[in-house]
């Protein structure tokens, strides 16, 4: 089995964008998703730090602080992620990676970036779309019951986002409930692209341990068994399956309720144990959907496009009212 490195180790292979006042920091966006609506004038207007006023703190972590902010002139609400100037260089590299990818994408199921700017003192600020209900992890922690119907609505949107990302050769590599944002209408968007990867070639290697170990697929741990040139897109599908199962069960699938994960225990369970399954009370279509996501052999795992046509979504029209 491959040597397991610390989960915080970063193996960033892409060249990082270079900030310069004489050249654009970001490339042109990718074509929009077919379901994308027209971007509003407010979203396309350049935003500066002077335009925003802080309302309150939404959260802390990973070298920065996220604020709920208001545009002084339009009253539009945004989320402002501020990465502190004294943060670990690896964190700042992740931020630059995330910004580069966000400015490349245009999908209703991927969080939008409305601007990025330097703040005196060395801080970097990213102005993003605000989602008023936080994350799926927040809802789970607050006691929300995720029924099959609700999860079908969520999955349909996440898979649409993954299909868009994968079709543009972007692998998320850290999909989990805390990285899926949600609003009061249960519209969800994929966020946090700090460890994502843009595939340069068809067989571009994905052999790195970035991301959150609990949601990593078996091939990302054990490259001796699966090889270094596995399909990185399949890793996102595994992560989605675990996240959905966690929401349904109310706790992380590989652990009993209330037990904290242990790195080595999780690694052995994911690599050598059987994938977790749904209880018998779950519908046949739901069990089948989870099985299609949690195939240990990545070559048997369904793609995002295939999963969008899974019978789990057969009553898709009814989901609009969930």
From TrEMBL:
Gene3D superfamilies to which the protein is assigned, alphabetical: Phosphorylase Kinase, domain 1 (3.30.200.20), Transferase(Phosphotransferase) domain 1 (1.10.510.10)
Reaction catalysed by this enzyme: L-tyrosyl-[protein] + ATP = O-phospho-L-tyrosyl-[protein] + ADP + H(+); L-seryl-[protein] + ATP = O-phospho-L-seryl-[protein] + ADP + H(+); L-threonyl-[protein] + ATP = O-phospho-L-threonyl-[protein] + ADP + H(+)
Keyword Nucleotide-binding: yes
Chain residue ranges for the region called Disordered: 15-38
One Gene Ontology term of the molecular function aspect: ATP binding
Gene Ontology annotations of biological process type: pollen-pistil interaction; response to other organism; response to stress
Enzyme class: transferase
Residues annotated to bind ATP: 81
CDD domains linked: PKc_MAPKK_plant_like
InterPro entries the UniProt entry points to: Kinase-like_dom_sf (IPR011009), Prot_kinase_dom (IPR000719), Protein_kinase_ATP_BS (IPR017441), Ser/Thr_kinase_AS (IPR008271)
Coiled coil: none
Record bears the keyword Cytoplasm: no
EC number: 2.7.12.2
Pfam families linked: Pkinase
Domain Protein kinase: 52-313
Keyword set, alphabetical order: ATP-binding, Kinase, Nucleotide-binding, Phosphoprotein, Serine/threonine-protein kinase, Transferase
Family according to the record: Belongs to the protein kinase superfamily. STE Ser/Thr protein kinase family. MAP kinase kinase subfamily.
Name recorded for this polypeptide: mitogen-activated protein kinase kinase
Organism: Sesamum indicum
């Amino acid at each position: 089995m491959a040597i397991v490195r610390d989960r915080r180790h970063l193996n960033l292979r892409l060249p990082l964008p270079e900030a310069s006042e004489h050249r654009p920091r970001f490339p042109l966006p990718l074509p929009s998703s077919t379901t994308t609506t027209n971007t509003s004038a407010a979203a396309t207007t350049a935003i500066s730090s002077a335009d925003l006023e802080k309302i309150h703190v939404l959260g802390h972590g990973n070298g920065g602080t996220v604020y709920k902010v208001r545009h002084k002139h339009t009253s539009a609400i945004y989320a402002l992620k501020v990465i502190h100037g004294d943060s670990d260089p690896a964190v700042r590299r992740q931020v630059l990676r995330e910004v580069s990818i966000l400015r490349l994408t245009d999908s209703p199921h991927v969080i939008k970036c409305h601007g990025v700017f330097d703040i005196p003192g060395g801080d970097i600020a990213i102005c993003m779309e605000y989602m008023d209900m936080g994350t799926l992890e927040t809802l789970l922690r607050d006691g929300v019951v995720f029924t099959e119907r609700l999860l079908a609505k969520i999955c349909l949107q996440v898979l649409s986002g993954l299909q868009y990302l994968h079709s543009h050769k972007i692998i998320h590599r850290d999909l989990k409930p805390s990285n899926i944002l949600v609003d009061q209408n249960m519209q969800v968007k994929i966020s946090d692209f700090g460890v994502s990867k843009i595939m340069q070639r068809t067989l571009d290697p994905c052999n790195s341990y970035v991301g959150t170990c609990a949601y990593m697929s078996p091939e990302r741990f054990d490259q001796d068994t699966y090889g270094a040139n596995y399909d990185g897109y399949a890793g996102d599908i595994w992560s989605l399956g675990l996240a959905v199962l966690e929401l349904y069960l109310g706790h992380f699938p590989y652990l009993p309720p209330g037990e904290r994960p242990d790195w080595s225990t999780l690694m052995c369970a994911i690599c050598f144990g059987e994938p977790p399954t749904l209880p018998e009370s779950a519908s046949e279509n739901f069990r089948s959907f989870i099985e299609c996501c949690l195939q240990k052999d990545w070559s048997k795992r369904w793609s995002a496009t295939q999963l969008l046509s899974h019978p789990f979504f057969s009553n898709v029209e009814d989901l609009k009212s969930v």
